[in-house]
Design brief:
Largest sheet: none
Radius of gyration: 29 Å
Helix content: over 70%
Shape: elongated
Number of strands: 0
Structural class: mainly alpha
Low-confidence stretches: none
Length: about 550
């Protein structure tokens, strides 16, 4: 067109700008051409240039925006969207407010652009204001805005509001369902996610890969192996058996269930395998009763010319901890140092954890001290390391040091703190920090925190107090808590009636676990109640349950 001496207008230039957005040198060339042709004052051209420059260079995008006079709502909206896409969420909110102060009325695109900024900042108050504005301006009828609001409320941990907005959408699309299911999973409402999936299929919406992965994730957390197997059948029926990401999610699910055989079968049939699939299979073995097989998969991976990432090294270190394989663990540590990954927080945490589990707490302290920027994960590992080695006071001092650095504790750190108090008999300190969780740090206690307190009371011989604590818990106790109580009953001279209550609750929750039957049978035997002993043995025979044998671990060369 230029060779034929046809002069382009600004509409032509707009088309060319969109065409070259993924080629940075050409973007700069076209920008120069627009100035040469005198189109730099055309707002549509400036808006398009802001959009393409924001992909490569936000400084240039800001300069263009700031030097443009008479900005219209489209240019303001484009700049807000550019900020959001580049993770400049605070700047996006400030820019949106500045637009309002200049008397520019936001349009539908402006609202769609700003809601994700509120979501990613967790700015619930601002998000509610945007929601109110969208209702007032009648933009709320747009499904894109409704979907963004569903996502925003879910990310701000206001799932009830998210569900309210979702159920108010008259014409839900696939994005609506996907966003809501994801929101439920992120808010630990896994059963709600499964219900929504069933409702989605009832409404004749076929799930895409993203929804399938979300549901598999929910099933993994619920520990529902039978439902997981049924969903696996649905995945095959839907034709996702060749999807690496979906099969990897299933592999992770079976690994979490402890069904390592099904996980391995999926892995062996998966072709081609990507690094995530290798990593997931290694992690599954590392967490299983066959941690040494994690190294066999690792060797296969290296034979396939795949380079390990940080997550794989974390899994291998975990396997070493499970196997008490100190020499192999030191070898993995050497590899980590050699490839220069000593600044990775997850690897540092895993190394601290491994050495502390070996009882080499000084080595764990050395790695912790050498860490240039300690994050929450590293602090938590060091606190836990002190606790498992019986250094309760050092664990609490480490926790106080973390607080003094300005790092806010999360629920995982409090598990480490309470566990350390439990193992070291620091009852006063345990209650102090347990109540401080919610009062001072706004961390709601979860089952794991209650389990630590039950464990502490049981270790102190206060089983009756522990049982009363369990009965007054605001959450339903799981088999871990009842198991802790039963272990406390064995160590304490407690009435057989309390032992029966605890054992029967545990058997109801975990009927395949023989240890509950064995402990109750031994307690009956000590009381000379042979009739009950015989009844329990008959029940075990009917269920085809066998008493687990003990075993020891030794390190061998792999």
């Amino acid at each position: 067109m230029l060779r034929n001496e046809h002069k382009p207008n600004y509409v032509t230039v707009l088309c060319i700008i969109r065409a070259v957005e993924k080629w940075e040198p050409m973007v700069k060339g076209i920008h120069g051409f627009t100035i040469k042709m005198g189109f730099e004052l055309e707002l549509p051209v400036v808006t398009a240039l802001v959009g393409v420059h924001s992909i490569w260079d936000m400084d240039t995008a800001w300069k263009l925006f700031d030097h443009t006079s008479g900005k219209d709502v489209i240019l303001w909206s484009a700049m807000v969207s550019a900020c959001v896409k580049n993770g400049e969420y605070v700047e996006a909110v400030e820019l949106f407010r500045k637009m309002l102060s200049f008397g520019v009325e936001p349009n539908y695109v402006s609202v769609v652009g700003i809601v994700p900024a509120c979501a990613n900042l967790g700015a619930l108050k601002v998000g509610k204001e945007i929601h109110a504005y969208s209702i007032k301006s009648l933009f709320i009828s747009h499904v894109n805005i409704q979907n963004s609001l569903v996502d925003m409320y879910a990310k701000c941990w206001s799932l009830k509001a998210s569900l309210t907005v979702f159920h108010g959408i008259e014409k839900k699309d696939l994005v609506s369902w996907r966003t809501m299911i994801h929101g439920c999973v992120e808010n630990d409402s896994f059963s709600e996610a499964l219900s929504l999936f069933s409702e989605m299929r009832y409404c004749c919406f076929e799930p895409d890969e993203s929804v399938i992965r979300e549901v598999i994730g929910a099933l993994s957390q619920l520990d529902e192996i039978k439902i997981g197997q049924c969903f696996h059948s649905l995945v095959l029926k839907q034709g996702y058996s060749r999807s690496v990401s979906v099969v990897t999610a299933l592999l992770h699910m079976y690994g979490g269930f402890g069904d390592i055989q099904s996980a391995r079968s999926l892995f062996d049939h998966l072709k081609p395998k990507d690094l995530i699939a290798w990593s997931t299979m290694i992690a599954a073995y590392a967490q299983s009763e066959l941690p040494s097989d994690a190294f066999h998969i690792y060797q296969q991976m290296r034979s396939a010319n795949e380079k390990p990432n940080e997550i794989i090294y974390v899994s291998l270190l975990r396997a070493c901890s499970s196997m008490a394989a100190e020499e192999i663990g030191e070898g993995i540590h050497a590899q980590v140092v050699k490839i220069g990954n000593t600044s990775n927080a997850f690897l540092i945490s895993s190394l601290i954890d491994m050495y502390c589990k070996f009882g080499r707490i000084s080595q764990g302290e050395a790695i912790f001290s050498e860490c240039p920027s300690k994050d929450l994960i590293c602090w938590s590992s060091m606190i836990n390391g002190y606790g498992i080695n019986g250094h309760g006071n050092e664990a609490l001092q480490c926790f106080l040091d973390m607080l003094n650095t300005g790092i806010k504790p999360n629920d995982v750190v409090f598990i480490s703190v309470l566990s350390a108090c439990s193992h070291c008999g620091l009852e006063y300190e345990a209650w102090n920090w347990f109540y401080a969780m919610e009062e001072r740090f706004s961390v709601t206690p979860k089952l794991a925190h209650y389990a630590c307190m039950v464990d502490m009371l049981s270790r102190q011989g206060n089983v009756e107090e522990a049982l009363e604590f369990v009965n007054n818990m605001p959450v339903e106790p799981d088999k871990r808590i009842w198991g802790t109580l039963l272990a406390g009953c064995r160590k304490t001279c407690i009435s057989i009636e309390i032992c029966e209550i605890v054992a029967k609750r545990l058997i109801a929750l975990d009927p395949e676990n023989t240890s509950s039957f064995v402990i109750l049978s031994n307690l009956y035997a000590e009381q000379g109640r042979w009739k009950e002993v015989e009844q329990l043995r008959q029940l075990m025979d009917e269920k085809n349950l066998k008493k687990d044998f003990g075993y020891s671990l030794i390190e061998t060369s792999l």
